[in-house]
Design brief:
homotetramer, alpha/beta, Rossmann fold, 2 domains, five-stranded mixed sheet, elongated
């Protein structure tokens, strides 16, 4: 084994419960397990580009395990959006005396990591997304927390819906994959679940709600992913439902459904837009353990020079997979899986 | 003491955690304490008008203490909105053999109860509103649960806001009183709190956020009551922010602030609209105990023929106050109290 | 496919969050998916032996998804402990017109199911144990909830330990496998984790606590599985630490450690014995989804006549494995895995 | 108003959720509201005796609002247990340039504060105890959190008790007052509540449990305060149930009841000893708001030179009461109040 080494770590992209647990595990294992050093770059790739970092120690990472967010900060900076990005990354790593980089992030962050690896930079990845839409791992940390938060909200809505005969719409996260909506809908006992993978028909939604009504079920819970969309021409989306990038605006589809269902069925309908509540705060035990295991495995992989790989959960084991696999495709909800749950609804 | 008696109970208005706890306490005390009978009217005053009720027993009220909602159902029906309302109430009570009625509800429900009392109907009230805006009691059950739910949401948002340098807007309930916003803002460590009692100036809000930014606090949490309004002319509210009754639409002010703060400051801003999550689900221990105590006191009061009164918390004691006092004025946040917390913000 | 069928379901052994979710999924899928019927036997195998059961309907299983416990009741009855057990099982199934039986349970319940299968009774299993010690599945439902409850308790203890310079001992469940202790210890940031798989040395435990003290960490959190035991001769267990079956009494090892650590180190030490809090109450979203998926798969398997098999989670998929595999060995924490986390402790 | 002032603050006694919220409010108000300075003494009176303190700033108190424990540390040191205690206190305050002291604590801490006041030291108090047994205030912060934690535990136990026909004993805190047991028992729907104020008869407890059994309620939840005691001669307490000070050992009464109820009734009985889980961790919203208000009022009182007084909640207002009143008597559960809830049990 080589002499003591020095690794850099960064967190990129949107918030995700468990980031601090990964950082802590990396630092503990590097220092106590190998006698290595770790530096943390601030605000994702921006810190690498600008040479902004700090030494991470046992002391500076104490107490962060149960905390949401990331002590390193984050950004959506991508080194390849600057002409001199690659050059700057190399320069920083050399100046900081870093033997390799551990990038914790989602599709964007890991995409940049993979490209840097191809360009010869020693980097490996730890997958992170509350949306659980990365293909190369069974599950990503952060998803379980988001799911739990959404489910607790649905639990609360259930009693009101039932005693007050309301239609309650819950908009959860999920821009291109419906995992949070599907699993929170199953866990919360929703009556309708709308996901980005399957454009919905507002007539069918209202039909289902009315049929429940006829059977004496005077309430319904509709769980909708922020990225769910009506089938072409069936619902005039509320204006302002997209931001300047054409991304759906949080609350867009939730409030559109609220208006449309009330208008069509005449039943009192109310929307809850959980938004960033799903991204922040203390991680569930599941996510803390998974994040910790991924962090420990990442430093082992770095020690072994497994650059270009990514830590992944496969069954009960943490394995290494090529970064390239991780970013090649978004893992969406298969439609046959979505339909398998039909008996639970309505 | 008179021979065995028979009381009716109803729950009216919006949902509120603790309703079932009141019902259970009434039934237990009436049956086990006095050997009395209790019937429950379905869906608030509607059940009284239409003679729709059921016998409540120890068995039928088992297990409901920790559950949100109301096993009796609720509605916004007001007997005085029908010409024959009073007559129908009297007829039902006579037919059902009811010696008196316990109405659990907010301003509307208790307003009707008070008028019925004036018209000679034996009725007393138990106050209920998550908004905590009834003057004659120190606090209403349901408020503590709403507060706790809102505070937990703010806790979650805090870590994201901080690590991702975001402005996060949380819209909480409170149409005409800002108690939930004020207390959840204090408990959650919010940086700006906007309440209906004090029209806000969007320029000041943005100024405060920018000043924090200059001091290195690159995030802010803004808690806004659904009924908070901009000072005349300072913010063009998003269209659709009011429903057909002119009431603010849930999410209206939250999303309006989201757009406006982002547009003016250039800082990424996201809104969470908690909505009915605050009204439903299991009550906090505080609300269960308060609701139980109010229910026990209500049946004692009914037994003593204290019609026209309302149970109320005063300090550590449950007392009886005139129903007329309870509905005479909304208890709003005094502006000097609102300002007292200024040192906590920003 | 055969004409409409009729299946029996039972829940056996200790409590486990998610049992009701399995039952509900089975009923929904059988009735709405296949037009089949389901009956529920009361109190595990006892209901089969005594012919005590009820028809399960959509209506009778409504609202049970988020509830802990089991609407069917449970017991530790084993049909093979009676001479006429097998005969009685056969008689009941015939009388009840049942085409096959779904047994939801742990080692004992599934052991009986496997033996019944060998004896020609059409039965299949759904694995259940909060201890997560069944070999044939990646994870069992109930474990995640127990883990979450234990972790939240450790979170609460942490702040007290730290500000009040205490040693806090948390006894969690796990008679022969240390999964809850290990994962809750990792998730809660414990300083010492003691599991049944590795007899501990009280001297080492005290040494570690003292070393932390010398480094200015004046507190420690010790997580101990109820089945953890001192190395031969190193700790005189508190009398009464075993019940009449020789099983460790809940609280035995926790309180023994409390006394012994305080006596040896002189540091104030306090024990918390979580006990059945880990077995009951609402399941986490993870457990609700897993339990639901297992229930759906069980009815599919029953429909296909896959008797003698058990539903299992493998990676992201629900698969069928032989019942015999499930009960052949207890899945314990591998010692090399236990040691892998050493860098996190102390 | 005098020129800028300088105040000291300390936290004494056992842990209590909300201590950090008081400290933060004091610091914010002193610095931002008055331009004053605050120093924090470490580990209660010990820090005053030994001159160990630190400057508290907006920065050093950031983010502590939702955290359990106390950033200042605590101890059970009492200045009057040293011959030179008073002299040392005076010397430290003079050397530190402190105009007055704010002591946050329970009976012991405030008792010392009151005596110091009598001896001419400028000191005022903020009441703190999870037991809620101080007479001069409606409620103390920390109580609500302890109550909520205990209630959530009972909720979890309920489903297990019910489906598995168990007697579950929950030992909660409360050495000399039964407020936590009483309120958690009411909120959790307990069947038996045992408090220190009323010695219990084990025969009656078992009789009640058996009677429930006869009525088809095959389970019972028994909530017992750690300080509850059997009536003379009715139960031989487990040996080891008291520590060296003669204080009941945590778990003593809980485990004694577990054995005794099982032995006498033959029903499976299990105990949960919540212990310090009730003292630590994040405070409820209620406790955060109350603690914050008390902190703000304390600094106002200090500014006005109201030495010898204590902040207290009276109805909805924070008022000042003499410290002497606060420590003159323990507020116990009145027996007529205890009996008022009888109809809820059994």
């Amino acid at each position: 084994m080589s002499a003591d080494m020095r690794f850099g770590v960064l967190t990129g992209g949107g918030d995700c419960p468990g980031l601090n647990a990964v950082i802590r595990a990396i630092v503990r294992k590097a220092i106590d397990g190998y006698g290595d050093q770790v530096i943390g770059f601030r605000d994702g790739w921006r810190g690498v580009l600008e040479g902004s970092y700090e030494e991470l120690t046992l002391e500076s990472t104490r107490g962060i395990l149960p905390r949401g967010g990331t002590i390193l900060g984050s950004s959506r900076t991508n080194p390849y959006r600057r002409a001199d990005g690659l050059e700057r990354v190399r320069a920083t790593l050399e100046r900081a005396g870093v033997d390799g980089l551990i990038a914790i992030g989602g599709e964007d962050t890991l995409g940049a990591a993979n490209r840097l690896h191809t360009d010869g930079v020693p980097v490996l990845g730890v997958p992170k997304t509350i949306d659980n839409d990365l293909g190369a791992t069974d599950v990503t940390f952060g998803f379980d927390t988001a799911l739990q938060v959404a489910t607790e909200a649905i639990d609360r809505l259930h009693t009101t819906a039932e005693s007050h005969h309301r239609i309650l719409v819950v908009e959860v996260m999920g821009r291109s994959a419906g995992w949070i909506a599907l699993h929170a809908g199953i866990a919360g006992g929703a009556d309708v679940i709308l996901i980005p993978e399957q454009p919905f028909d507002i007539d069918e939604v209202c039909h289902l709600i009315r049929r429940r009504h006829e059977r004496g079920r005077y309430f319904s819970i509709v769980v909708v992913a922020e990225g769910a969309r009506p089938r072409e021409g069936t619902l005039v989306a509320a204006s302002g439902a997209a931001d300047e990038f054409g991304h759906p605006r949080l609350g867009g589809i939730g409030h559109a459904l609220e208006s449309e269902i009330e208008r069509r069925t005449g039943f009192e309908t109310r929307a809850t837009v959980l938004g960033h509540v799903q991204r922040g705060g203390t991680p569930t035990a599941f996510d803390r353990v998974l994040a910790t295991r991924l962090g420990l495995a990442a430093i082992d992989a770095a020690r072994e020079g497994r650059w270009g790989s990514m830590t992944a959960l496969r069954g009960t084991r943490i394995e290494l997979v090529p970064l390239a696999d991780a970013v090649s495709e978004v893992r969406r909800v298969p439609l046959e899986e979505y339909r398998r749950y039909d008996v639970l609804f309505g």
